[in-house]
Design goal:
Layout lengths: L1 H33 L10 E5 L4 H12 L3 E6 L2 H14 L4 E5 L5 H14 L5 E4 L14 H29 L2 E6 L12 H24 L6 E8 L10 E2 L13 H13 L4 E4 L2 H10 L3 H11 L2 E2 L4
Parallel strand pairs: 1-2, 1-4, 2-3, 4-5, 5-6, 6-8
Antiparallel strand pairs: 7-9
Length: 308
């Protein structure tokens, strides 16, 4: 009798699981076809790391024009203040600039105290700062590798430890992290960089699941991971682009990528590539045999060349 009851219990829960899966597939398909409604960011306090140039600067500009209070963090205070001043000339939203080496935990926590005291609790955290030296694996110097991990992944952890508590207290907030296409597929001459970008995706997925379980599904803190293709920011010093595919695989502009990041954040998308087709193509490629994947990579023949 116990065995029959157990069997019925297992079958019932399996049926429930199948129905849930079908429902969420239909829901995801609907949102993919018709899109998700964008939430307002007016009045939100948006903190952006690496805001002095590139994607970070464009994010600061666009968020300010959407009515958000923008907090710019960068190790280069001169360029950081330049970003803030440029925004003040065209936008009415409050903009602040703080110098901070986000790889330094003490500096991050010190700045977090200042921001809380002078502005308020950060509600949207965008971990954008990153570096990308390109070398053959054995040519990377020890200091380069340590710096890569300090900025590209450990800085995410320090900012999360500093700004997540207030989000948990209010059960309101959004975490955005910049991974990369090289966090979806390994790209030659970017071995340590790719490792940090895979780590960013793991960090975001695991923390999101931890909050879901610890809050018993009541957490309203959202997570968005962005995986851009190569961006024309100066980090990618020697891009390698297949001439036959150059019209389909151009370098993305910082402005375009920033727009896609904000759209994803406002629609609560969990993970997206820029352009969006990459994540679907790479997910499909993963189910193919290894040699088929190699053939696809050889056909695309794009990436980076090692720096001299």
């Amino acid at each position: 009798m116990i065995t029959i009851h157990r069997g019925i219990y297992i079958l019932t829960n399996l049926l429930r699981l199948v129905l849930q899966i079908l429902y969420y597939i239909c829901e995801s398909t609907y949102y993919t076809l018709f899109g998700l409604q964008e939430k307002s960011v007016a009045g939100e306090i948006v903190l952006i790391t690496g805001a002095a140039h590139g994607i970070g600067k464009e994010l600061a500009i666009q968020y300010a024009h959407l009515g958000a209070t923008v907090v710019c963090l960068d190790v280069n205070q001169q360029l950081n203040e330049k970003t803030a001043n440029e925004i003040k000339e065209t936008a009415k939203s409050p903009v602040y600039a703080y110098q901070c080496d986000v790889s330094n935990r003490e500096q991050v926590f010190e700045v977090a105290k200042k921001v809380k005291k002078e502005i308020g609790d950060v509600t949207v955290l965008i971990n954008n700062a990153g570096i990308m030296p390109c070398h053959t694996f054995l040519d990377y110097k020890t200091d380069q590798i340590r710096r890569l991990f300090d900025i590209n992944i450990l800085a995410h952890i320090w900012t999360l430890q500093a700004f997540l508590p207030s989000m948990l207290e209010k059960n309101h907030g959004h975490i955005v992290a910049l991974s990369s296409i090289s966090g979806l597929v390994g790209i030659p001459y970017l071995v340590p960089y790719s490792a940090t970008k895979y780590a960013v995706r793991g960090l975001m997925e695991t923390l999101k699941n931890e909050l879901r379980i610890s809050s018993e599904g009541k957490s309203l803190i959202n997570f968005t991971t962005i995986c851009p293709y190569m961006v024309d920011t100066g980090l990618c010093k020697k891009p390698k682009i297949n001439k036959l595919l150059s019209n389909f695989l151009p370098l993305n502009s910082s402005k375009y990528v920033a727009t896609q990041i904000i759209n994803a954040q406002r629609r609560n998308i969990i993970e997206i590539s820029v352009p969006s087709f990459w994540i679907f193509c790479l997910s499909f490629a993963r189910i193919l045999p290894e040699n088929a994947q190699i053939s696809i990579r050889d056909f695309i023949d794009s990436g980076v060349e090692p720096e001299s």
